[in-house]
Amino acid sequence: MRNIPVDISALAFTVAGEPEPKIVDRATGEVKRDAEGRELYTIPLLPKPNDDRRNPVIVVTFPSETFPQIPEGVQVRPIGLAAFFWSMNGRSGLGFRAEAISLANPKAA
User: Fold this and answer.
1) How many angstroms separate the CA atoms of 64 and 38, rounded?
2) How many domains does the chain contain in total?
3) How is the chain classified by DSSP, letter by letter?
4) What is the rounded distance in angstroms from the CA atom of residue 22 to the CA atom of residue 33?
5) Using one digit for the tens of pLDDT, what is the confidence trace for 78-99?
6) pTM over 0.90
7) How far apart are CA 74 and CA 85, in angstroms?
8) Distance between CA atoms of 81 and 3, rounded to whole angstroms?
């Protein structure tokens, strides 16, 4: 799986929903971890400007040491945002991951 860096210099991102843990096993509730042992979370982000009217929101996976407290509606910056193609069980798609999600304006939260 090859990560492709995404240039976000001309984009602003608004949180479109609450962060959720990325679950490995729904039966046990085990949360997926990265290579450094940090839990992985997903967060829906609305990039602006965005010309894709059918699917304006992207879901970004990112690591966090604690459950992220990022409220819906605030502007954030996905640090180290990268895109990757995935394929599993006959399905495929485009995914996004970031090294971190930070508030664009920390005083707004």
Assistant:
1) 6
2) 1
3) ---EE---TT-EEEE-S--EE-EEETTTTEEPB-TTSPEEEEEEEEEES---SS---EEEEEEESS-----TT-EEEEET-EEEEEEETTEEEEEEE-SEEEESSGGG-
4) 8
5) 999 999 998 989 999 999 999 9
6) no
7) 28
8) 9
- Whether 43 is covered by a domain: the verdict is yes
Task: Report the C-alpha gap between 26 and 24 in whole angstroms.
Answer: 7
Tokens linked to 80: 């180290």
Indicate whether 49 belongs to any domain.
yes
Rounded Cα distance, 73 and 94, in Å? 24
In a domain, 25, yes or no: yes
Range of the domain at 31: 12-68
Tens of pLDDT along 33-68? Answer: 999 999 999 999 999 987 767 768 999 999 999 999
Q: Contact at 8 Å (CB) between 14 and 41?
A: no
C-beta neighbour count of 96 within 10 angstroms: 21
